[in-house]
């Protein structure tokens, strides 16, 4: 029988008491800030469906990151918007690709920042899919070579971490082998181990101009109904040499995140994606919710479920609140 004399409210009476017994704590080190690099100079173009988030030219990215690092952001993940696209997404692995340029610029403006490069083809292909397409089908194995080339090119530019997100079978193993053969055995892989075919990616596709020209990505991204399959996906990436396992999206998949954290001894991350961010923004702009409170509640829940790392467009705002600003 429970002790009926115990009153849980005793420890909720004041903010200092609540803080004293708080079980889950956010810290600036938890967050990675996603950024979108585009061509041009002095470009700072707000993304309509993601208020406060911009497409940034390389010079603007360097300034943005320097300011974010000053604030306390410890890491960024980069996505690219190339000037031109083609069938094989050659801009993804070109030496002067937009992400490669951004990595070099960030390395100069914020030398100690952790730089993660998203490793995928969808932003660079004319058809908008994450791999090689022939006769209307996304081919797995021919895509692996291009993803591996992309990862090596990003490592050569100075990325600390590459993040394969294409959901091609065997992509982590192919990238690990290519990085090691090229002398980048110290470059880590943050695997999008569990990436669902989600409706929450809509604003990102506007931001990165990466919507598929035909069909959708359900043949390679995961069915939202599946849990056991998520563990199989993570097990494969673990075995192939992943250093970090990532769940995407975050808030609708906290059960997956919790299970992943319990099953594997690697650092675990979650991507609080564009649609999740946009919903909070839209509700706040309509006066329906307190944006700061809901933001922090959401990020705390993601960490409570098991995320060591949280990718979020709210990284700067969260850090400001944690610092009392």
Largest sheet composition: 8 strands, parallel, barrel
Mean pLDDT over the full residue set: 94
Widest β-sheet, arrangement of strands? 1-4-5-8-9-10-11-12
Order of helices and strands: HEEEHEHEEEHEHEHHEHEHHEH
**The CATH class:** Alpha Beta
Oligomeric organization of the protein chains: single chain
- Gyration radius (Cα, Å) is 20 Å
Residues in helices, as a percent range: 25-40%
**What is the assigned CATH homologous superfamily?**
Aldolase class I
Structural class: alpha/beta
Strand content: 15-25%
Number of strands: 12
Low-pLDDT regions: none
CATH topology-level fold name: TIM Barrel
What's the end-to-end separation, in Å? 45 Å
CATH architecture: Alpha-Beta Barrel
Tally of contiguous helical segments: 11
Count of domains: 1
Q: Sum up the overall morphology in one term.
A: globular
Description:
This protein is an alpha/beta fold and 325 residues long. The protein has one domain (24-322): Alpha-Beta Barrel (TIM Barrel). 38% of the residues lie in helices and 18% in strands. The protein has helices at residues 15-20, 58-71, 98-109, 140-157, 171-181, 202-208, 228-240, 254-263, 274-285, 291-304, 315-322; strands at 31-38, 44-46, 54-57, 75-81, 114-119, 132-134, 137-139, 161-164, 188-195, 244-248, 268-272, 309-312. The strands form two sheets. Strands 1-4-5-8-9-10-11-12 form an eight-stranded parallel barrel, surrounded by eight helices. Strands 6-7 form a two-stranded antiparallel sheet. Helix 3 runs parallel beside helix 4 (140-157) and helix 4 (140-157) crosses helix 5 (171-181). The mean pLDDT is 94.
């Amino acid at each position: 029988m429970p002790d009926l004399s115990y009153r849980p409210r005793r420890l909720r009476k004041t903010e200092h008491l609540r803080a004293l017994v708080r079980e889950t704590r956010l810290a600036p080190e938890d967050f990675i800030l996603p950024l979108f690099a585009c061509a041009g100079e002095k470009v700072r173009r707000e993304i309509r469906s993601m208020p406060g988030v911009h497409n940034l030219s390389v010079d603007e990215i360097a300034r943005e990151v320097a300011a974010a690092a000053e604030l306390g952001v410890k890491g960024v993940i980069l996505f690219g918007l190339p000037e031109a696209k083609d069938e094989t997404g050659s801009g993804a692995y070109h030496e002067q690709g937009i992400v490669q340029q951004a990595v070099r610029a960030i390395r100069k403006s914020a030398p100690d920042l952790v730089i993660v490069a998203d490793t995928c083809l969808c932003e660079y292909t004319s058809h908008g899919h994450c791999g090689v397409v022939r006769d209307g089908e996304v081919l797995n194995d021919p895509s692996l070579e291009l993803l591996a080339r992309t990862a090596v090119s990003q490592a050569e530019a100075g990325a600390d971490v590459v993040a394969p997100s294409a959901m091609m079978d065997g992509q982590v193993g192919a990238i690990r082998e290519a990085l090691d053969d090229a002398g980048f055995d110290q470059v880590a892989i943050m695997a999008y181990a569990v990436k669902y075919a989600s409706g929450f990616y809509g604003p990102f596709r506007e931001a990165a101009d990466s919507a598929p020209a035909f069909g959708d990505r359900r043949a390679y991204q995961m069915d939202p109904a599946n849990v056991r399959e998520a563990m199989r996906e993570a097990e494969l990436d673990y075995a192939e040499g992943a250093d970090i396992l990532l769940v995407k999206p975050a808030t609708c998949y906290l059960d997956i995140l919790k299970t992943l954290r319990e099953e594997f001894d690697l650092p675990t991350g979650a991507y609080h994606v564009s649609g999740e961010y946009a919903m909070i923004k839209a509700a706040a702009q309509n006066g329906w919710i307190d944006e700061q409170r809901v933001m922090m509640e959401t990020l705390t829940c993601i960490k409570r479920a098991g995320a060591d790392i949280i990718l979020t467009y709210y990284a700067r705002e969260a850090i400001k609140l944690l610092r009392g600003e």
